[in-house]
């Protein structure tokens, strides 16, 4: 369970996240959506202890993230991962084991690494250097690292960036499997509301640093709710059992 | 991996060559034949010099590698980050204010200056808006220039230009038994840094990457910078500055085997030692019996290789 109570983030005088309180239950996928600059990444990085909150408290399983080391409980993948180092994909993924192994890889760790590479379809690229990969391949390597870290909570910030349609779908199916088969709690920032509605169990919608709507996809996928989130007219169509938001 | 023993043998061969040549007035045959004079030359001069070359090469190359990971820039190393010049200023300060200070105290002061200078460099970097890879060494060179101008001014006023010269140009010709042993400490510090190799690699991936893995980023950076500052101070005080070493060696190793420090650090150390040995041997034979200081040889060779790397890396970074 992730409890966020009264959390704000200010940069100088600009309030970027404004007094947010919400509780995200254990298990399942929570998608965070909203327009650019809504504060989604900032909120996620505060939960992931990469950025400290200006006010309020965030607790994961009852433990305050500001004071408890949590690399074995929670992992986060940021939106931009600018990398200068020349590491191979396998070396990068192996770092996912660092919190538990501290660099001394056991056989169990090796199995984790192979599994993560296989999940993301990276076996053939394992010995390649990161600077010799395409953006999408690099993105998958980063997700593999987080997967390899094998934490109960996984935070992903727009992991579909740079991915083509097929890899984007594979990624979302993988995230679904992580939730369903491995029992992980996943919080994922998604750019596309339709992807969120298709794969997530809950949607949290942000705008101007606040949470404007939250609930199951059915509750968010209405013209009225979408208008409140995106400040534009959006039609919702039903195709089979799926709901599609169509902006016009 | 067979590469490691081969590299080690290569360094040993260079070390043997370094022992056997020089302007000591003894031919290799006479040296090998033994005799008191030969043994004295070997023990008092040749052996210390060869050790000094290896120790300096290995520890400065690794220091360069750590700087590159911490600054997250290919072109950062003690001589492009103001570290060397700050260490020189520290030596100058302690010489002026406490001329009789014990060696250890002098080293500590020089290390403290080196650390402060490097921190200033990193603080400047955070304020430079455009972070093109090449801006980073430029900032460091400018900072180094300012610091060395201050040093020159002070040295000129107090008639210490000669000492300052000794700290700023690397030269192994004055190395004798009893005058280089501090360099073993540099190697020990380098070994200590290797304990944190994984953490340095993670830090090289960025603050967020390291933090996500539960690594205390600031502590790793502080640890790395302290090691680099102390190693630099030790080398500056005993040998003098050796430009490009910490830049070229890690970059070439990185091109071949990447930046996983845990894996590449032995190669960086060995290659660093080999490079300095080779430059010193070259300096001794080119105009025999006169010597060209190693810093000069390295400067000429190094800037050529540096240019090559720059063009190559530049093409890559896009
Ligand atoms: N380090 C920072 N300093 C100043 N402003 C920032 C910083 N990081 C983010 N912001 C601002 O905070 C707002 C929210 O950013 P972000 O959380 O990245 O939005 P989102 O991920 O929803 O697009 C933006 O207006 C952005 O400019
Ligand atoms: Mg964002």
Provide an overview of this structure:
The complex is a heterodimer of chains A (248) and B (318). With 248 residues, chain A is α/β, with parallel strands linked by helices. Helices cover 33% and strands 29% of the residues of chain A. Chain A has helices at 40-47, 89-94, 98-101, 107-119, 135-149, 165-180, 193-199, 217-220, 223-230; strands at 2-11, 14-24, 28-33, 55-60, 63-64, 74-77, 153-157, 185-189, 202-207, 210-215, 234-239, 242-247. Chain A has a 6-stranded mixed sheet, with helices on both faces. In chain A, a hairpin with a 2-residue loop joins strand 4 and strand 5 (63-64). By secondary structure, chain B is mostly helical. Chain B has a single domain (3-317), classed as Orthogonal Bundle (ABC transporter involved in vitamin B12 uptake, BtuC), CATH 1.10.3470. In chain B, helix 6 (135-157) packs antiparallel against helix 7. Chain B is globular and about 60 Å long. Chain A binds chain B through residues 45, 48-50, 69-72, 75-78, 81-88, 91-92, 95-96, 98-99, 102-103, 129, 131, 149, and chain B through 69, 72-74, 133, 198, 201-202, 204-209, 211-215, 254-255, 258-260, 262-263, 316. The complex binds adenosine-5'-diphosphate (ADP) and magnesium ion (MG). Magnesium ion binds next to helix 1 of chain A. Magnesium ion (MG) binds next to helix 1 of chain A.
Descriptive tags:
heterodimer; A: 248 residues; alpha/beta; six-stranded mixed beta sheet; four-stranded antiparallel beta sheet; 9 helices; 33% helix; globular; B: 318 residues; mainly alpha; ABC transporter involved in vitamin B12 uptake, BtuC; 14 helices; 76% helix; binds adenosine-5'-diphosphate; binds magnesium ion
Q: How many E strands of chain B?
A: 0
How many strand segments of chain A? 12
Q: SSE string of chain B, helix = H, strand = E?
A: HHHHHHHHHHHHHH
- Widest sheet, order of strands of chain A: 6-7-8-3-9-10
Pfam family, one (chain B): FecCD
Keywords (chain B): Cell membrane, Membrane, Transmembrane, Transmembrane helix, Transport
Protein name (chain B): ABC transporter permease
Membrane topology (chain B): Multi-pass membrane protein
């Amino acid at each position: 369970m992730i409890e966020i109570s009264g959390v704000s983030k200010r940069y100088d005088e600009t309030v970027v996240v404004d007094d947010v309180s919400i509780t995200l239950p254990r298990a399942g996928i929570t998608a965070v959506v909203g327009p650019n600059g809504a504060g989604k990444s900032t909120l996620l990085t505060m939960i992931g202890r990469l950025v400290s909150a200006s006010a309020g408290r965030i607790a994961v399983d009852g433990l305050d993230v500001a004071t408890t080391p949590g690399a074995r409980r929670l992992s986060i993948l940021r939106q931009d991962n600018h990398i200068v180092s020349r590491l191979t994909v396998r070396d990068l993924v192996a770092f996912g084991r660092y919190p538990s192994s501290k660099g001394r890889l056991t056989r169990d760790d090796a199995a984790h690494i192979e599994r993560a590479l296989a999940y993301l379809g990276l076996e053939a690229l394992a010995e390649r250097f990161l600077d010799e990969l395409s953006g999408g391949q690099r993105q998958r390597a980063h997700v593999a690292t987080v997967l390899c870290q094998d934490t109960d909570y996984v935070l992903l910030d727009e992991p579909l960036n740079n991915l083509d349609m097929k890899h984007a779908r594979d990624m979302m199916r993988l995230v679904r499997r992580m939730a369903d088969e491995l029992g992980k709690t996943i919080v994922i920032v998604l750019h596309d509301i339709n992807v969120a509605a298709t794969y997530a169990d809950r949607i949290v919608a942000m705008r101007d640093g606040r949470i404007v709507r939250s609930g199951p996809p059915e509750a968010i996928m209405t013209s009225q709710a979408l208008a409140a989130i995106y400040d534009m007219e959006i039609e919702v169509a039903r195709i089979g059992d799926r709901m599609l938001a169509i902006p016009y | 991996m067979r590469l490691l023993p081969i590299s080690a043998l290569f360094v040993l061969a260079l070390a043997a060559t370094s022992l056997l040549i020089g302007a000591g007035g003894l031919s290799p045959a006479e040296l090998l034949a033994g005799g008191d004079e030969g043994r004295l030359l070997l023990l008092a001069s040749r052996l210390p010099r060869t050790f000094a070359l290896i120790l300096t090469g290995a520890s400065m190359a690794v220091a360069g590698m750590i700087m590159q990971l911490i600054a997250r820039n290919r072109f950062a190393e003690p001589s492009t980050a103001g570290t060397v010049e700050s260490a020189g200023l520290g030596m100058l300060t302690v010489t002026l204010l406490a001329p009789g200070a014990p060696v250890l105290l002098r080293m500590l002061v020089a290390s403290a200056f080196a650390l402060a200078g490097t921190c200033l460099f990193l603080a400047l970097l955070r304020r430079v808006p455009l972070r093109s890879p090449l801006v980073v060494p430029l900032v460091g060179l400018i900072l180094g220039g300012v610091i060395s101008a201050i040093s020159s001014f002070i040295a000129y006023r107090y008639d210490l230009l000669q000492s300052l010269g000794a700290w700023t140009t690397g030269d192994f010709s004055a190395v004798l038994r009893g005058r280089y042993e501090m360099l073993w400490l540099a190697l020990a510090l380098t070994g200590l840094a290797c304990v944190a190799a994984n953490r340095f690699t993670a830090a090289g991936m960025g603050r967020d990457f390291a933090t996500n893995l539960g690594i205390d980023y600031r502590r790793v950076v502080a640890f790395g910078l302290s090691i680099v500052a102390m190693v630099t101070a030790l080398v500056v005080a005993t040998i003098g500055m050796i430009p490009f070493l910490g830049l070229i060696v890690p970059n070439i190793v990185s091109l071949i085997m990447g930046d996983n420090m845990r894996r590449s650090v032995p190669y960086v150390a060995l290659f660093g030692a080999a490079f300095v040995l080779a430059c010193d041997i070259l300096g001794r034979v080119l105009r025999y019996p006169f010597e060209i200081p190693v810093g000069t040889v390295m400067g000429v060779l190094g800037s050529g290789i540096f240019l090559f790397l720059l063009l190559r890396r530049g093409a890559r970074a896009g």
